[in-house]
Design goal:
The chain is of the alpha/beta class. α3 crosses α4 and α8 packs parallel to α10.
Length: about 475
């Protein structure tokens, strides 16, 4: 389907908004200064900004012929007004009311905080509801999450930073995954040289941040699946981190153990001995049939074993990740999963919604998003909200992704005092994240209004083959801080 943009450049936001209503249809943007020479091809949407400050949005969609127009003033946001007109047409045509209204961005909490600073909390909430068309349920969780996030952010300082360590290996690729990770079935020979060079990058990075006088606030080892490394390799990387960085002000040290089929008691003890205080064990679901469908090579029993082993090892903060809207999952199955997880009483639980990423196996195999799946996923999240509140958890960070089932969200829940600090920092983009490893992206704040990025090579073989260049790129951290 083509979307014609006449005398405007609203295509980025409006293309995304259109995909909320038509997640399985590929759109093509066509830009023009005027519509005199355009031959419209049905079905289509057109967005025109006239010289008389009139915005007109029209649609010819199968049996629908509809349009909306509005004259805007000097202080109006023309792009938002166009989005609201388009939203009106598509909601009427599809019968779908997206829970986040016209918002398509990843960070609604960050947007809400900005509005709150400008107009106050009550007015910001009204703006979300009445201007952005966000549902009452989502406004409520926005208010609660922003309050809890702000409490965490208030304790950080301009000289603080967090450290991300990338281990881009997995035992196999999950069907919904689009992350850059290498299957150890094919790349086992790269794991040891990668580990050795990661330790070298950690050492070099520590020298840079020490010279800059930066203060480490949190460490997060993610991937991939970090526990694809051996116990000895894990201990080497984690110990190197503790030895090279000043950990005296570090509020959190997390390892995303991830898949239970990679976790052993030996690895857990290696992680614990390196002073890691938070671990994530992610079943995604406790339905063995669904696990098989999504390509997870473990069972619910494997998760229970890993969780028990982590407790025996002394971990006082365990996070678990779940996904709502997985293929073949049902509301009853999700309810059973969540109920069984809460009985274990992990300190934090992250409830994701399935996102159909373009590079995922599910998407490449032709999986579509359907309205009934959206309704089921919405039921799942509503149940999670009620249940987790009742069990003493509260939302402390929230973010969204494109092409999510039901246009919903991912929410981190925790018991009081058990938040995942790194999750808040990376989502708010207000703290520098310095990253090591393949696929890692360093993000430097405090450089005016911009977030400056330094990219490492994506793939393990590139990282290994061009490691000298990786170390050279790290020098840009000094240059960026000298500018700021």
């Amino acid at each position: 389907m083509k979307i014609y943009y006449i005398n405007n450049s609203f295509d980025y936001e409006l293309d995304k908004l259109t995909s909320v209503f038509f997640p399985n249809i590929k759109t093509e943007s066509v830009k023009a200064d005027c519509d005199d020479m355009i031959v419209y091809e049905k079905p289509y949407i057109s967005v025109k900004f006239g010289a008389d400050s009139v915005i007109t949005v029209a649609a010819e969609l199968n049996d629908l012929s509809d349009f909306r127009s509005k004259t805007i003033g000097d202080n109006d946001n023309a792009e938002l007004e166009a989005a609201l007109l388009l939203y009106d047409i598509l909601k009427s045509y599809t019968g779908v009311t997206p829970p986040w209204g016209v918002l398509t961005g990843v960070r609604p909490i960050k947007l809400f905080r900005k509005l709150k600073e400008q107009m106050g909390e009550r007015e910001a909430a009204e703006h979300f509801k009445n201007v952005f068309c966000v549902s009452a349920e989502k406004v409520k969780i926005t208010l609660e999450t922003e309050k809890n996030e702000s409490e965490i952010l208030s304790k950080t300082t301009p000289k603080s930073f967090s450290l991300y360590l990338s281990v881009p290996f997995c035992p196999s690729r999950c069907s919904y995954c689009s992350f850059v990770s290498a299957s150890t079935e094919r790349t086992k020979h790269l794991v040891e040289p990668y580990t050795r060079l990661l330790c070298e990058e950690i050492e070099k990075t520590a020298e840079i941040v020490s010279a800059l006088g930066l203060k480490l606030e949190s460490v997060y080892m993610g991937g991939g699946t970090p526990t694809t490394l051996s116990a000895e390799q894990l201990e080497r990387v984690l110990t190197k981190t503790s030895e090279c960085f000043d950990m005296s002000g570090c509020r959190e040290f997390t390892v995303e153990a991830g898949r239970p089929d990679t976790i052993t008691a030996e690895k857990l003890f290696a992680i614990k001995s390196a002073n890691v205080d938070r671990i994530s064990i992610n079943p995604q679901t406790l339905n063995d049939a669904v696990l098989k469908v999504i390509g997870r090579r473990h069972t619910a029993d494997d998760f229970y074993r890993s969780f028990e082993d982590a407790r025996k090892c002394g971990f006082g903060h365990i996070n678990t990740d779940l996904i709502a809207g997985l293929p073949a999952d049902t509301f009853s199955s999700f309810k059973s999963t969540l109920d069984n997880i809460t009985r274990l009483s992990p300190e934090s639980i992250t409830v994701h919604t399935l996102a159909m990423k373009r590079a995922s196996t599910l998407n490449q195999n032709g999986k579509k998003l359907y309205d009934n799946e959206a309704d089921t996923a919405s039921q799942m999240l509503t149940y999670a909200d009620t249940t987790l509140h009742d069990c003493g958890y509260y939302p402390y960070y929230l973010y969204r992704q494109s092409r999510m089932v039901g246009n919903l969200e991912n929410t981190g829940w925790s018991k009081k005092g058990m938040e995942g600090y790194y999750n808040v920092f990376i989502m708010d983009e207000s703290q520098t994240i310095i990253a090591c490893g393949a696929g890692a992206v360093t993000k430097i704040t405090g450089c005016g209004s911009r977030l400056e990025r330094i990219f490492n090579f994506k793939y393990p073989y590139e990282y290994i083959d061009r490691f000298d260049e990786v170390l050279k790129r790290k020098e840009a951290i000094k240059q960026l801080y000298d500018k700021s």
